[in-house]
Structure formats: structure tokens, C-alpha cells
Amino acid sequence: MNLVARVRAILVTPKTEWPIIAREPGDPQTLFLGYVAILAAIPAVCGLVGWVLVGAPLGTSILIMVLWYVLNFVAVYLGAMIIDALAPTFEGEKSSENALKLATYSATPIWLSGIFLLVPGLGFLLILGLYGVYLLWTGIVPLMRVPEEKRLGYTGAIVACAVAVGILLAVAAGLLGMRRPF
User: Fold this and answer.
1) At a CB cut-off of 8 Å and minimum separation 6, what does 64 contact?
2) Residues 71, 44: contact at Cβ < 8 Å?
3) Model pLDDT, residue 72
4) How far is Cα 114 from Cα 76, in angstroms, rounded to an integer?
5) Which residues contact 151 (CB under 8 A, 6 or more apart)?
6) Model pTM?
7) Cβ atoms within 10 Å, residue 92
8) SS3 content of the chain, % helix, strand, coil (to 5)
9) Helices and strands, number each (H, E), in the chain
């Protein structure tokens, strides 16, 4: 898998890319090391630079960004578990491999929008990461084999669970003192 070609295809032509992804193996090591590890580094590195630019201490910034980087892996894994667990509820097929592919590739715009963390005032542009919801919606039928009429409900349930998990992770991170300085 060519990383740049996959990123471009999933963003520009997701409806044709998902069936290709569905036929590929969903090896966790390949997905985590060859995709998540690289793309999740974008917001981590850009956030680190942005924090230092606003005067945050370098050591603290590095620690926080490493922890946030690791939380990306946790979020993708938990997202895949949620996708897989909810599949039968929406008449889909359980498949941990396809759920991991769906969680991984749907997160692409979130990681890419992390480039805006370079400039603290542009952090609001992370909202562009919401394109990932559309990617999730387009990938549910080919990967999890959910009937078309159940697609919207399944997507909504996944997003609601992801938001809840995100809030819990943010609260946990806040309790650990990992707050963004901007």
C-alpha cells in the first residue's frame, strides 16, 4: 500500500476506494505501523511546534504530545471495537479486521487537519476532520456489510460512541494535566 496514494484515494474517491480496502487484509501491525503511526504524527508534531511557539515549556510539550500520540492508537483500537460490536445490531457482519480498517482510514482527515495546530490561532480548522464521519458513512456498507437502510443509524451510533469515548479520554487526559495551552 502506497501511503500517499491511499490517503489521496480515501479522501478524493472514498466510494471507489472502500471496496478496494475491503478486499485487502486488515493486519493490525500493518495498519498501525504503516498508517496510524505516520499520520497520527502530524497533529503530534504540529501541536508540539504550536505549543512551543506560544511559550509552553519544551519538556512538558513533548510529554503531552507523546501521550496524545499514543491516545490516537487507543482511539483507533477502541473505535474498531465499537464498530465491530455494533455490527450485528444493524444487521451487519462482525469482522474485527474490517472494523479496524474502517476506524483507521476514517480517521485520515482528523490527522491531516492536525497541520493547522502549527499556528495556534488556526486550531479551529480541526473541524475539517469531521469529513471522517462521511468517510465512515461511505465505508460501512462495503466493509461491515450493513444493509443500506441501516447505514445512517449505524453511523450515528458509532459517532455517538466515539464522542463518548473521546470525552472520556479528554477528561482522563485533563486529570493527568495534559491540557492544551491554547
Assistant:
1) 51, 178, 180
2) no
3) 92
4) 16
5) 137, 140, 141
6) 0.89
7) 23
8) 85, 0, 15
9) 10, 0
Residue type, 157: A
Which of these, 110, 115, 169, lies nearest to 136 by C-alpha position? 110
Distance CA 152, CA 157 (A): 9
How confident is the model at residue 56, as a pLDDT?
81
Q: Name the residue ranges covered by the structural domains of the chain.
A: 57-111+130-175
Extract the C-alpha cell encoding 57.
515549556
Helix (H, G, I), strand (E, B) or coil at 169: helix
C-alpha cell at 95: 469482522
58-86 and 96-106 are packed helices; what angle lies between their axes, rounded to 10 degrees?
140
**Residue appearing with cell numbers 476506494:** 17
User: Residue 176 carries which DSSP code?
Assistant: T
> Tens of pLDDT along 75-94?
999 999 999 999 999 999 99
* CA distances in angstroms from 23 to 17, 34, 138, 175, listed in the order given: 10, 18, 16, 42
Q: Which residue has the cell 499556528?
A: 119
118-156 per-position pLDDT tens digit: 887 777 777 888 899 999 999 999 999 999 999 999 999
Sequence-distant (≥ 6) Cβ neighbours of residue 152 within 8 angstroms? 137
